[in-house]
Design brief:
single chain; 7 helices; two-stranded antiparallel sheet; about 230 residues; eight-stranded mixed β-sheet; alpha/beta; Spore Coat Polysaccharide Biosynthesis Protein SpsA, Chain A; about 30% strand
C-alpha cells in the first residue's frame, strides 16, 4: 500500500511553540512528529509515502531523504499552497497503488490500517474515513453515519455537543478524484467530500484508538506527555 501525507500547511496556530520548522517536524518527546506518523504507516503495511510539502519543505526532505525504515519516500512540492485537495491531487502522479491512504501531517490517529482497508473493500467504498468520538469536538464539526457505516452528513461545529469527528485518515479510490473536474487549489473536506457526499459511496470507520491533533499549543503540550510510547 502507498500513502500520501499532507504536510504542506503553514502551522500559523502553533507558531508560539514551533518557529523554525514546518508543523509536522515539530519535536514531540525528542522526535519529529512526522516520525510517529511514518512509524504507524510502516506498521500498517505501507511501503511508500508521498509527502506533500510546501512551507520550509527542505527541512522535511533533508531529514528523511528518500527512506524511513522500510518505507520509500517521495516528495510532491507545492510551490504555492494548494489546500488539502490540491495537495492530494498533485501527489497522485507519484502513486502507483489503488486505493491510496491519505493522512494529515499534523494529526496522529493510531487506527488499525489493515482494518480500514478491509472496511473499504467490503463496502466497495469510494472514500472511507476513520472517525474518532470526542466529548468536545468544538474545533472540528462532526460526521453522522448510519448503522451500516454509510455517511449521512457532515455537521457544522456545535459547542458542547459530543460526536464523531473526521480523524484525518482516509482510503480513497484514485479514480473518484482523477475523473472529477476539480480546480488546482481546493479543500478535500469542504469542496469535495461535502459537495459529493450525496453521489459517491463514503463510508465511516469509527475507532476509539489514540488520537491527537497538534494544531494548538495546548494539544501540542499533551502530545509531549503522551506520545513517547508510540515509537
Amino acid at each position: 500500500m502507498e500513502a500520501i501525507i499532507l504536510a504542506g500547511g503553514l502551522g500559523t496556530r502553533l507558531k508560539s511553540k514551533v518557529k523554525d520548522v514546518p508543523k509536522p517536524m515539530a519535536i514531540v518527546n525528542g522526535r519529529p512528529f512526522l516520525e510517529y506518523i511514518l512509524t504507524h504507516l510502516q506498521r500498517g503495511g505501507v511501503t511508500k509515502a508521498v509527502i506533500s510539502v510546501g512551507f520550509m519543505n527542505k527541512v522535511i526532505s533533508d531529514h528523511f531523504r528518500y527512506r524511513f525504515g522500510t518505507i520509500d519516500i517521495e516528495y510532491s512540492v507545492e510551490d504555492a499552497p494548494l489546500g488539502t485537495g490540491g495537495g492530494i491531487l498533485q501527489s497522485l502522479k507519484f502513486v502507483n497503488t489503488n486505493p491510496i491512504l491519505v493522512v494529515n501531517g499534523d494529526t496522529y490517529f493510531q487506527i488499525d490500517i489493515f482494518k480500514l482497508l478491509a472496511v473499504h473493500s467490503a463496502k466497495d467504498a469510494d472514500v472511507t474515513i476513520a472517525a474518532k468520538f470526542l466529548e468536545d469536538p468544538d474545533r472540528y464539526g462532526t460526521v453522522k453515519f448510519d448503522k451500516t457505516g454509510s455517511l449521512v452528513s457532515f455537521e457544522e461545529k456545535v459547542k458542547g455537543k459530543a460526536g464523531f469527528i473526521n480523524g484525518g485518515i482516509y482510503l480513497i479510490n484514485k479514480d473518484i478524484l482523477l475523473s472529477a473536474s476539480l480546480p488546482p487549489v481546493f479543500s478535500f473536506e469542504i469542496d469535495f467530500l461535502n459537495k459529493r457526499s450525496g453521489d459517491i459511496n463514503i463510508q465511516i470507520m469509527p475507532s476509539d484508538d489514540y488520537f491527537i491533533d497538534i494544531g494548538t499549543s495546548d494539544d501540542f503540550e499533551i502530545a509531549q506527555r503522551e506520545m513517547g510510547a508510540f515509537l
